[in-house]
Amino acid sequence: MLGNTFVLLSADADAGFLAALNKNLNLGDIIVTVLFFTILMVLLKKFAWGPLMGVMQQRAELISSEIEAAEQSRLESQKLLEEQRALLKEARDNAQAIVENARKQGETQREELISAARSEVSRMKEAATLEIATEKEKAVAAVREEFVSLSILAASKVLGKEVSEEDNRALIEETIVKAGEGR
């Protein structure tokens, strides 16, 4: 019973509240307020919301283009870095090739100098051998001359007469040649 009384009291309170509310509300005020609110929303959409969204769209496009430019710069930097690395590797290879070529050229020049020195030594040995042989022949000829002179002198003393020097010389040279062939 107490529960029914509470429901009835609350129903009476609701009915009284609504009646009091209807009495205070004016239908014209509501319509004018809704109309002004709608006009305000249209004006805000046209003059504030539209340009604001346009500015936001431009800002989004600017940020997007800056991101793309940064990505392009990064890719270009990466490409330049790879090119620089390739050039550096090529330069190292070229330097190594130059060093290797210089080493080979030095080795070749060393071999050429050694070969030229050996040739010069061989030529000098041959020249010395030829000079020794020539000097030997000159010495042998000088000894023969001396021997001929001494033989003529000895023969003339032994024979006691003077033989012409030319006859003696021819005789002694013939004897020496025969003695040289006998060896």
What's this entry about, in short?
Its main location: membrane. The chain is mainly α and 183 residues long. It has one domain.
Structural account:
This protein is mainly alpha-helical. It has one domain (2-182). It has helices at residues 2-24, 27-159, 165-182. The N and C termini lie far apart (176 Å). Mean pLDDT is 82; it is low at 1-9.
**What count of domains describes the coordinates?**
1
Overall mean pLDDT stands at 82
Overall structural class, as computed from helix and strand content, comes to: mainly alpha
Tally of DSSP helical segments:
3
Chain-wise SSE layout:
Layout: H1 2-24, H2 27-159, H3 165-182
Helix pairs in contact: 2-3
Keywords:
single chain; 183 residues; mainly alpha; 95% helix; 0% strand; disordered N terminus
